[in-house]
Write a structure and sequence with these properties.
8-stranded antiparallel beta sheet; 11% strand; 29 helices; alpha+beta; single chain; elongated; 51% helix; 3-stranded antiparallel beta sheet
């Protein structure tokens, strides 16, 4: 027995690049795309993305989204790669990203590829380009116009235009009247589909079969021939009312006293007269056909007939009574029974009459419709057969779109090459210009409050903006990854440019603050300290201003009422003058002691600081580190955790890796304003501050120079001043130091 050897294909050799804290695959050849299903999904950057809200062709995403749920996942991406590679001779053409399909690139040895070649040539033939060997997306994009121009477009709907025949058009119109219509999905005109056509002809055939039982030559069944049907119809409408009338008359003949009860009472007519009369309304129709008398005779004409039934009785007299009994003005009960007896066989047959719209048609109309059944079904078959060509046109469109867009999707889904190479990732909505910076990391947002909950975990300074343009509105979130955040606040305005280059007015609506760099965190405590001082000074100034305004107002009031105050003082006895207050000696002494103690402490601290000698710079560095160190440490930790993932996850993506945004990348994504190279300033700012940072720096340098000079010249002997040594309070507050 011969052993069968099976060989397994060698594993594909992938190439990766380490970027953003994750290994990302590189698509070098078409084989990488064809064998994407072999790549471990743990190495994919994203595992899902929405089909809307990103800068990518929505139609292409819809063709990839097999289940139509508005999201693209790895199985659908793999299926799209395998589908397009199976129909191409060499999948390397996918790397070019062209929207022009060369027919020679299709695999003619593959059944699917061969069908696409045949359909492409058919399409080029229809478009008048039989010698062309290329097919563009524009040739497929107007597929709707192409199909609408065809008689058969594969949607399974027959319109009056498709029929191209008066008889078939009349049948289509009758089907739409009795069974409704369905719009042609390419021509946007009403038509009928297979379900409506088959239902209509089934009803017509049932009505025709019933008519076959009603043989016009059978005198027992059809005493009047074909008109017997009309006689039976009119009789059926009034039969119950006639039976009721003659029954009332027989009771009146039995006992004349019953006539009053059998006819409408005056109260009944009073009730009718109280309302607006309608001859066809039920209250009048419920009255007897005519006044009930013992004669048992019904007048067929004249004003004695119930107005609600006058038309039906006239039709009954014309189509049933006159042909069967002869023309007459009255109908007795015996004659009524004779009419029913002659029509009884047909009435029994009419009980079997189909209850549908076709039953009301004449035999001639039914036969005319049945003659159009086969031609109409043949048209429907031809139109449904064209659906195969329609599906192939969709496949051609899908192939051209994947040839153009698939690599772009892979570089924004399986890997983030487009983002880290700053080629414009599909999730980037555009560029925001605000606060002297351009922010390239912007993402479209549907719900700001919901997005901010998750996006805050990105450890990134985020500004949510509402963008408006010509009545349109959208929301974005922009990441500020460089520069300071001192002047970012809600309500500040900027300009946003989308991927199409359109400008939008942008206004910050929500801000998530996070450090943008360690250097920015270094100055943050001092800025906060200065800000607190400014706020406190502003509050004290405002309070003092309010108090001063109150004092001035009170003083002005006293001046305006001085004459009234003088008159009142003349009437009242003079008050004892109050002696001017004197300053208490004890208070002055206490204030002096306090000031001395404070100055002694400050001098002691300064002396200890000078005693450090050459370690003074180290002490200064230590003080600065104690102030700025915690802020810088927190900033360093947050910058190490800064990532892109939470921002995209909040927008509907499923990010598989960390996708870090380090300081270097952040400096590229948020660029501050810089004078271009080669430019120069031709004049100094005439409005610059005269006492700016230069004066402060000079004062600090002079102070340090004075301290060093005092230390070198032994002006500071590290002992307390003599005046302080004699102060018992100062001596107790400041520890003594040994004299040199």
């Amino acid at each position: 027995m011969r052993a069968v050897l099976t060989t397994t294909p060698a594993p594909h050799r992938w190439q990766f690049i380490r970027v953003g804290g994750a290994d990302q695959v590189i698509f070098r050849t078409g084989e990488d795309i064809a064998r994407l299903g072999e790549l471990d999904q743990k190495l994919w950057v994203a595992l899902a993305c929405p089909t809307r809200g990103i800068d990518f062709d929505a139609r292409t995403l819809d063709l990839i989204d097999a289940d139509g749920d508005g999201r693209v996942r790895p199985p659908e991406v793999v299926a799209a790669c395998e589908w397009v590679c199976a129909r191409l001779r060499n999948p390397d053409v996918l790397l070019e990203g062209s929207d022009v399909l060369t027919l020679d690139d299709l695999d003619a040895d593959n059944a699917d590829g061969a069908r696409l070649i045949e359909e492409a040539r058919r399409l080029l033939q229809i478009q008048g380009k039989p010698d062309s060997a290329t097919l563009t997306l524009a040739d497929i994009a107007d597929r709707g116009e192409l199909l609408s121009a065809m008689r058969f477009n594969g949607d399974g709907v027959i319109t009056s235009e498709t029929a191209q025949s008066d008889a078939l058009g009349a049948t289509v119109a009758e089907i739409m009247r009795t069974h409704g219509s369905v719009p042609d999905r390419h021509k946007e005109t009403p038509g009928v589909d297979r379900a409506r056509i088959e239902a209509f002809f089934a009803e017509v055939q049932a009505a025709r079969d019933w008519h076959a039982k009603a043989d016009a030559n059978d005198k027992t069944l059809m005493p009047l021939g074909e008109p017997t049907l009309a006689a039976a119809d009119t009789t059926r409408k009034v039969q119950a009312k006639l039976d009721d009338y003659f029954a009332r008359c027989r009771v009146a003949a039995f006992d004349a006293q019953a006539m009053t009860a059998l006819n409408p009472s005056p109260e009944a007519y009073d009730a009718l007269g109280a309302n607006r009369l309608d001859l066809s309304a039920d209250p009048i129709a419920d009255l007897p056909l005519a006044p009930v008398t013992p004669r048992c005779v019904l007048p067929l004409h004249g004003n004695r007939i119930n107005p609600a039934w006058a038309g039906d009785i006239a039709a009954f007299a014309e189509r049933a009574v006159a042909p069967l009994l002869g023309a007459r003005d009255e109908l007795s009960e015996t004659e009524w029974q004779a009419v029913k007896q002659q029509l009884a066989p047909l009435q029994a047959l009419m009980a079997e009459r189909p209850d549908n719209a076709a039953a009301a048609l004449s035999l001639t109309q039914l036969d005319a419709f049945l003659q159009t059944r086969e031609p109409l079904l043949a048209l429907l078959h031809d139109d449904e057969a064209a659906e195969t060509h329609n599906n192939l046109l969709v496949d051609l469109e899908k192939l051209i779109r994947l040839q153009r867009d698939l690599v772009v999707l892979l570089n924004n889904f399986v890997s983030f090459k487009a983002f880290y190479r700053r080629e414009g990732a599909i999730f980037q909505a555009g560029t925001l210009y605000l606060d002297g910076r351009s922010c390239e990391l912007t993402v479209q947002v549907q719900d700001t409050a919901r997005h901010a909950v998750l996006a805050g975990l990105a450890k990134t300074c985020l500004a949510y903006c509402d963008c408006t343009r010509q009545g349109q509105k959208m929301s974005i979130v922009a990441a500020f990854t460089a520069g300071d955040i001192d002047f970012l606040f809600v309500g500040r305005n900027g300009v946003f440019y989308d991927r199409q280059g359109r400008d939008w007015d942008a206004t910050i609506t929500k801000l998530i603050e996070n450090p943008t760099s360690v250097a920015q965190a270094f100055f943050a405590p001092y800025k906060k300290f200065v800000r607190v001082i400014e706020e406190q000074v502003a509050k004290r100034a405002a309070a003092s201003d309010a108090a001063g305004q109150g004092t001035l107002t009170s003083f002005a009031s006293r001046l305006t009422t001085a004459d009234q105050a003088a008159a009142g003082a003349a009437k009242t006895p003079a008050a004892v003058p109050r002696t001017a207050g004197r300053v208490d000696v004890g208070t002055v002494a206490a204030i002096g002691v306090a000031l001395g103690s404070i100055s002694a402490v400050l001098v002691a601290i300064f002396g200890k600081f000078v005693d450090l000698g050459q370690w003074i710079p180290v002490a200064l560095i230590g003080i600065v580190a104690a102030i700025s160190g915690p802020s810088m440490l927190i900033a360093w930790l947050k910058l190490r955790q800064r990532s892109l993932g939470p921002i995209l996850d909040a927008s509907g993506w499923a990010i598989n890796g960390r996708m870090k945004v380090n300081v270097r990348l952040g400096g590229m994504l948020s660029q501050t304003a810089r004078v271009p190279p080669g430019a120069r300033r031709v004049a100094r700012d005439p409005y610059r501050e005269r006492h700016g940072t230069t004066g402060v720096a000079a004062a600090v340098v002079l102070a340090l120079a004075f301290v060093v000079l005092a230390w070198r010249m032994d002006w500071l002997d590290h002992r307390l001043p003599a005046a302080l040594q004699h102060s018992p309070t100062a001596a107790a507050a400041v520890p003594s130091t040994p004299s040199s």
